[in-house]
């Protein structure tokens, strides 16, 4: 098993991985939605605003994760994690957590200061994310599940409040993902 940043062009393979995983874990409609999201993220995001990491086993991508730029009025170097998928037959073996930890280390070394995500606190707390309120950091769109608004600082113990409104990349600026 190898964890690495994705530099080659594997757009179709990655789209298929996300479509399959979310079809199997949720519904075919969710699979299509998330497959299309990762296609949009790869097509419409400037290279300096996106990181994709993968886990490779026997020359096949078996897990993948995206981080895209999260813009604050204070110009913090911040990224949001979304989405992540581990191939169904490889889930629950620690690969998801290891891939996220690999990515966080890489981003820390590249001077990223703050990470956000929006998801299940029980899972993301295993990789150091903590619940935050919108008084600490505003979400770019309305949160359907405020409990899932999570962050971690890569430069200090706690997440400091961030003034003003926030934005994410174009592909994620759609209420259906929030
Ligand atoms: C969620 C996901 C990325 C986790 O990766 P993974 O390799 O299966 O998880 P790991 O083996 O590293 O971690 C397993 C731990 O996380 C928990 N966990 C796994 N999936 C979870 C989920 N969907 N919700 C809450 N907790 C979850 C397990 O209970 C387990 O906890 P334990 O170690 O205390 O038993 C993966 O299961 C997946 O792709 N699921 C379908 C798609 C999805 O839900 N993506 C996340 C939203 S973007």
What do these coordinates show?
With 178 residues, the protein is an alpha+beta fold. The chain has helices spanning 11-25, 28-44, 95-109, 121-124; strands at residues 2-5, 50-57, 60-72, 78-86, 114-118, 130-131, 149-153, 166-168. Strands 1, 2, 3, 4, 5, 6, 7 and 8 form an 8-stranded mixed β-sheet that branches. Helix 1 packs antiparallel against helix 2. The chain starts with a strand and ends in a 10-residue tail after the last strand. The structure holds coenzyme A.
Tally of individual domains: 1
- Number of separate helices: 4
Named CATH architecture:
3-Layer(aba) Sandwich
- Averaging pLDDT over every residue, what do you get? 96
Bound molecules: coenzyme A
Superfamily (CATH H level) name:
Gcn5-related N-acetyltransferase (GNAT)
* CATH class descriptor: Alpha Beta
Q: What profile does the largest beta sheet have?
A: 8 strands, mixed
CATH-derived topology: Aminopeptidase
Tell how many strands the DSSP assignment holds: 8
What does the overall shape look like? globular
Run of helices and strands:
EHHEEEHEHEEE
SS content category:
alpha+beta
Proportion of residues in extended strands: 25-35%
Low-confidence stretches: none
* First-to-last CA distance: 32 Å
Q: What share of the residues lie within helices? A: 25-40%
The rounded Rg comes to: 15 Å
